Amino acid sequence: MKILITGGLGFIGSHTVVSLVENGFTPIIIDNCSNSSEEVLMQIETIIGKPLTFYKEDVTDGLALDRIFTTEKDIKGVIHFAAAKAVGESVENPLKYYHNNITGLVQLLTIMQNHQVNNMIFSSSCTVYGQVEKMPITEDAPVQAPISPYGNTKKVGEEIIQDVAKSSDLQAILLRYFNPIGAHPSALIGELPLGVPQNLLPFITQTAVGIREKLSVFGSDYPTPDGTCIRDYIHVLDLADAHVIALKRLMNQQQESNIEIYNIGTGKGTSVLEMITAFEEVTQQSLPYEMAPRREGDTTIAFADTTLVNEKLGWKAQRTLEESLDSAWKWQLNISNKTL
Ligand code: WQD
Known about the structure:
The chain folds into two domains: 2-180 and 234-264, 3-Layer(aba) Sandwich (Rossmann fold), CATH 3.40.50.720; 200-231 and 267-335, UDP-galactose 4-epimerase, domain 1. Helix content is 41%, strand content 17%. It is built from eleven helices and 13 strands. It has helices at residues 11-22, 38-48, 62-72, 87-92, 94-114, 149-166, 200-208, 236-251, 272-283, 307-313, 321-335; strands spanning 2-6, 26-30, 53-55, 75-80, 119-125, 171-177, 179-181, 215-218, 230-231, 233-235, 259-264, 270-271, 289-292. The radius of gyration is 19 Å and the shape is globular. Bound molecules: UDP-4-deoxy-4-formamido-beta-L-arabinopyranose. UDP-4-deoxy-4-formamido-beta-L-arabinopyranose (WQD) binds at residues 85, 87, 125, 127, 179, 198-200, 203, 215-218, 229, 231, 272, 295, 298.
């Protein structure tokens, strides 16, 4: 069964492509390589042991999308990862984010409709909740005005999909990711931040391997047990598995309404200092860090209530934080051509 994977060479996309193949699907990858490289395609093919169909195209290009759907004929569904995702950059360059993330989504939905492809899994984010008082966060927590243009593109993206589903045969499942971390155990694919990493774990692994001098902990005066922010860090392979299970639900027409929304997290919160301690224990590397001022736009605490996805999809995160940290470290060593 052919499934179009937009952004399939990205961090979450590449791991989901591996899980899809392992579950008997045929992924068709489209990626403009603006935040990934064709090297990732070769690594995925090494992991799965066979070639993949790849189109180096941009989802904002409706003609290119139309050609792909015509060429591939029987695409049965789409998993839409392709989007710009750096919170800070979106504040400086909102138009890049509205073009990439919103125009891209509208073009994709239009071409899907023209080709009667009605199944979509959408990559959303817990960032749509903004700062939530009550923890853990449930799917019916109010979606607030997100704190960044990036977060707004996810909120508006969800609303666009819901409107299209109301007026067409579109069936969609929106997955609100918490904080994806880790890498495939082969260490052949993982998180490839271009430039200075914005996210915590890539900065930690680059510091531990000597690329960065030290980690700055953004804020130590938050109202949390150790004063640092708390997040729900989920192994990227658990996240990939959630996409496969959600896709099977759509393919088997088991969904209970044409739009379903699920939080995808571990249900546990971990602070920045706890991440540092756990990383040092798992890797036996000491991590130089300093306390620094808070980062604009950070929420104090966010971790998922995963009751709904546990019940409806039978999915639960399987991997431990230690497994995530160990896999991220092995990946960093591999791309830094270092040995353990
Ligand atoms: C986690 C914690 C930082 C770097 C964002 C997006 C979310 C998703 C994941 C795309 C925070 C602290 C970080 C550093 C630090 N992105 N930190 N020093 O901000 O929770 O989520 O990335 O889908 O949508 O919002 O993740 O990894 O940037 O930060 O102290 O050098 O680590 O302050 O408390 P975040 P993050």
